[in-house]
Structures are given as C-alpha cells and as structure tokens.
Amino acid sequence: MQGFRGRGFPARQPSQPIPFSVEELSDEALIHSLALGVLWSLEVLYQRYSRLLYSIAYRMIPDHQVAEDLLQDTFMAVWQNAGSYSSQAGSVRSWLVAIIRHRAIDQLRKIRARADFKITPIEELLFDENLTGADAWEEAWKSIQGAQVRNALKQLSNEQRMVIELAYFQGWTQAEIAEGYQIPLGTVKARMRLGLMRLKHLLEQMEGGV
Amino acid sequence: MHLSRQHTNEREMPMNCQEMEELLGAYALEALSEEERKAADAHLATCAKCTQTLKQLQAIVDLFPLSVPAVEPPPRVKAQILARIQENEKTQKLPPLSTPIPVPMPVPVRQQRAPVRWRTALLAASTLVLLVLLGASFLWNIALRQQVAQSPVVYQLHGTGDTASASGQLIYYPQQNITVLVVHNLPPLTGTQVYQGWLLHGNQPTSIGLFNIDNGVATLDFQGAPHGFDAAAVSLEHGPQASRDAPQGPVVALGTLTP
Predict the structure, then answer these.
(1) Between chains, do B3 and A175 touch, taking CB under 8 Å as contact?
(2) Count of pairs with CB atoms under 8 A, one residue in A, one in B
(3) What is the mean pLDDT of chain B?
(4) Residue A194 phi, psi dihedral angles, 5° rounding
(5) Rounded to an integer, what distance in angstroms lies between the CA atom of residue A26 and that of residue B157?
(6) Between chain A's N and C termini, which has fewer beta carbons within 10 Å?
(7) CA distance A156 to A165
(8) Other C-beta atoms within 10 Å of A154: how many?
(9) What is d(CA B226, CA B229) in angstroms, rounded to the nearest whole number?
(10) pLDDT (tens digit, 9 = 90+) per residue, B2-48?
C-alpha cells in the first residue's frame, strides 16, 4: 500500500488512457448511477442485457408480445428500484434475470390457474430444440459457457432434465411437479438435487478440459 | 393448482442436515413453497456446510440463462420503456435527476448562501411547484433527450502496492452534475476501519466522504464535478470517523483525472 507523504500528493502511477470507453463501466457503477437518477445508465444496461432477458422471457413463454411486456416491466422495475439492489444478493445480471424470471413465473401461474390449462406432455418438455439454439452469448460474455451449459444439460437423464425444466423455466414447485406428473415427492427432490450435482460435475470436467 | 404442504405444515422440529440436503436442489431451483423455504432458511442460518453446498448449486442454476437460444427484442421496446418512464415521471413525481443529493461538495472554495426567511421560501417553493407542473412535460422531454445523448466522463482508478488487484471508476455525469466512484476488490475492512475518498489538487487533498461497502464493492457519490482536480484517491482509515484534512492511512487506489 502506498501512503501520502504527510499531506502530500502520492507519486503518480503510470498514466492510464483517460477517459476510457464508457462500455467498460461495471454493472454496479451503472446501477449506482441509476439509483441517483441517471437515465443514461439504464440505456447502457439495456444494451447489455435486453437480448438475454428477452430470450429468457421468450423461452419461458413463447409469445413475442408477452416477452416484450415482460422486458418493459423489468426495465421499469430496474429504473424504479435500482436503489434496492445489493450485490450481496448476487451480480447485477443475476438480479435482472431474477426480476424477469419471477415476472414470467407469475404469468405462467395465471395461465396454469385457468380451467382449460392442460399439462404439457413429458416428450414436449424434453424437446431438444430448447437446447440447440445458436450460441449468441459468446460475443456478449466472451466465453464458451453457453455451449458448455447446453451440452451438460443434454447429458442429464430425461427425468432429471424434466424436473429442472419445470422448476426453472416453468416456475413449478416440487410439490406441484409431484402432483401434476404423478411422481413421488421424494423422487422429485432427488432428481432435482442429483441433476444439479451431475451438472456441477459435468461443468467442472469441461472446465478442466478446456 | 393448489397443493397440500404436509411436508412442512406438520413440522415443529428444526430441519436437520439430512433433511436439508434433500431439499437443496429444489431450493436452488426456487421450487420450494414459502413454508418449505422458511424452514430451510432457518436451518441454513445455522449451518455453514449446507449453505456452502447450496451456493455451489445456485452457481450452477445461475448458468441456466446461458443455455437459452438467443432472441432479439424488437427495437421499439427501448423507445416504449423510455416513453413509460417519461409518462411515470410526469404523473407521479419530479424527475429523479432534479432531486438534490445530500453529499458534500468537493469544490475547495464555496460561496455561502444567505439565509432565506421561511415565508419567502414557502412562496418560492409554491411558485416553483406551479412552474414545474406547467412545464414538466416540456422540460422533461428536453432533459430526457439531453440525458440520453450526453455521455458521462469516466476515469479509471487502480489499486496500489498490496492492493494492486483493486480497480474502479470515477464517473462524472455532466447532465446531472453528479460524480460517482465505484471500486472493486478492495480488501475487507476490520474493526472500525473505513475507506475514504479524496480528490487532489496538486498536493492538497479534499475529502469527498466515506465509501459504502456492499459485498466487496465500494461506492461513493457527490454532487458536483471533479473539474480542477488532478487525481482521485481512496485511503484506508482507522475510522470510524473520516479523517479531516488529509489521509492518515495508506492510499489503496488512485487514478489521475487529467487527460
């Protein structure tokens, strides 16, 4: 650590290119600025995350109008509640994903409450199209994580993938899955836990192999 | 679909580790009922081992968005969001950008304002409210356009010595005349220690206050610009009070403010 010399100005560090691109601003800096009313920050966050959030919404409810509404509502919530964000609860990306996902789950629960709601057959739930999209996230995150996660999910057993799909992308509780698909509750719990443990193992193996 | 919650409704005893382990997957996937989650939270509050395992599973679940096929939102959505914000601000409150921020001005020399009598202040406030109501739409339109168009000025801060891994940014928003500092990877504080921000003009430091620390991210903001200063610095102080005239502790991050 470097100290001031008395009240003096410390020796200058090697000069950095200043100012640098605003694209390099951290998500936390943008959220903090947004909480102060800087609308410009919302624009940058929108550029960074709108495609991801829209894709999640559309994956959960494949209706463009609904996905648009969810995206709008999410950014309105971010604008109004930026001050409540705490990095203790996770990254800004996780926070944004949680907002749109919870809103989508609310919509899905309303749909499930309708009298004419029919449970999706297991075969449709496991349709691989959901896992074969072009990896558009590589550019955004400069990583191969997207492909790795999809590959790992494909390697789970159908039973494990089914409960994960229903819970994460459809917002079902474990008890709802047990009742809706006539599976013992203990089995649902085990499939969830073992499925995630298997994913962890697979992703660690892939990481080690890169 | 309404389902029974017999698993937790009948529970009186605290959950043990084995029961918690069974629920960890469902917890990470947010597939527990509210009652189940409360019971799990009570166990997690006292069990570091289960909490650690849960974090590992949550880290896996956090990767699921990466598996989603990418779909581009229509360009109109952004415009619709901005229009909704504009509408909300018009009907509910003044634009946030007009809200004063109760933080110290870093400018070394400030003019003192003469005290204003309360009746005059009340009259002025009423007039201001009226003017704002009458012109809100027009002014907000202009403010919004300017705000979106006018980019902030950003300077980079770097860790020094033992804290070389720290990094941060000083961001000045001209439209709002607000400066924000955000620093990552500072070492955790112990006891009464605090991180304090400084602007430096030549050899003269000016305190800009104490940082708020949230999960390793330090933030500080103040009304005003860093114009006329040569550098921004973060010092580690004994605390809990801020040092008055100059840092008493080591400088842990620093960045120059001159082009």
Answers:
(1) yes
(2) 295
(3) 78
(4) -70, -35
(5) 13
(6) C
(7) 12
(8) 13
(9) 6
(10) 444 444 444 557 889 999 999 999 999 999 999 999 999 999 999 99
Chain B residues lying within 8 Å of A154, measured CB to CB: none
ipTM: 0.81
**Can you state the angle between helices B76-92 and A64-81, rounded to 10 degrees?**
40
CA–CA distance, A15 with A44 (Å, rounded to integer): 27
Contact A94 B259 (CB under 8 A): no
Find residue B5's DSSP bridge partners: none
- For A78, A178, B51, the CA distances from B45, given in Å and listed in that order, are 29, 28, 8
**What residues of A are in contact with residue B74 (Cβ under 8 Å)?**
64, 68
- Sequence-ordered list of residues with C-beta below 8 angstroms from that of B73, at least 6 positions apart, any chain: A50, A51, A54, A67, A68, A71
Q: Which amino acid is at B159?
A: G
Q: pTM here?
A: 0.69
In this structure, what token pair is assigned to residue B142?
């202009």
Q: What are the DSSP E strand ranges found in chain B?
A: 153-159, 167-173, 178-184, 194-201, 204-210, 212-214, 217-223, 231-237, 250-256
Q: What is the pLDDT of residue A40?
A: 82
Q: What angle do CA B204, B209, B214 make, to 5 degrees?
A: 135
* Helix, coil or strand: residue B41: helix
Two structure tokens written together for B162: 């033992």
Task: Answer yes or no: do A168 and B64 touch at CB < 8 A.
Answer: yes
Contacts of B214 in chain A (CB under 8 A): 86-88
Q: Which of A107, A45, A125 is nearest to A78 (CA)?
A: A45
| B205 phi and psi angles, rounded to 5 deg | -85, 145
d(CA B214, CA A62): 37
Q: Do B255 and A190 touch (CB under 8 A)?
A: no
Q: Which of B29, B220, B227, B235 to mutate to test the interface with A (most CBs of A within 10 A)?
A: B29
Chain B environment of A192 (Cβ under 8 Å) = 25-26, 28-29, 31
Helix then strand count (H, E) for chain A reads 10, 1
Of A28, A87, A189, nearest to B26 by CB-CB distance is A189
Contacts of A134 in chain B (CB under 8 A): 69-70
CA separation for the pair B194, B224 (Å, rounded):
23
Mean pLDDT estimate for chain A: 81
